[in-house]
Amino acid sequence: MNLLRELSMGEIVSRIAAVLLYAAIQGLALAGFARLLGDKRPQYEGRLTANPFVHISVWGTVIAALFAMSWVRVVRFDPAQNRLGRWGLLLVAVLALAVVVALVPLIDLLRPLALLLPRTGGYAVLYVAGQLQILALASAALNLLPIPGLIGGVLWQAIWPGEERRLLRLEPFGLALVIVAIVAGRLPNLANMLLPLVQLR
């Protein structure tokens, strides 16, 4: 496989480090905004935490290491508890994705701090930061897709709030479709095109 020959071990390791940071931020943002809107379910299910291992998806990590885009383990919501009702789920999703996109210029502001570290450590931090920017932007674009298993899949819960069990059964098929599309090159990584537009000059 050409892809594996093109990737260095350092690149794979830095992407795994980046996906841990991404999962912590994205998962906490989803649970946090849901809680702010009155939905206690993510908190009761232990998702209101910055621990990346609570939020991380195994297949999302594999795809992140190989293709620099990912997703988190699905956060379950209760539309009945949301102050805005079922359509509040869409607001939670949009706000959580916006937090991840906002990381990209914020990381640029924090880059000078890496220069205070010893040279090897500083280079490692800068490399992971660059991978996190690419991963955050590409993952935000990917998760806009209304596919069960991705963040955009909450659209179906908003449309059919009483069909959670059916949507749960569709999630593995949705993620399998996403994985096949990424591996086949049908879902290109948009981060390389969009990153220069959102980075600070």
TrEMBL record:
Keyword set includes Membrane: yes
Top-rank taxon, per record: Bacteria
Signal peptide range: none
Residues annotated as transmembrane: 12-33, 53-75, 87-107, 127-156, 168-187
Database matches in InterPro entries: Metallopeptidase_M50B
Swiss-Prot/TrEMBL keywords: Membrane, Transmembrane, Transmembrane helix
Protein's name according to its UniProt entry: Peptidase M50 domain-containing protein
Organism: Devosia neptuniae
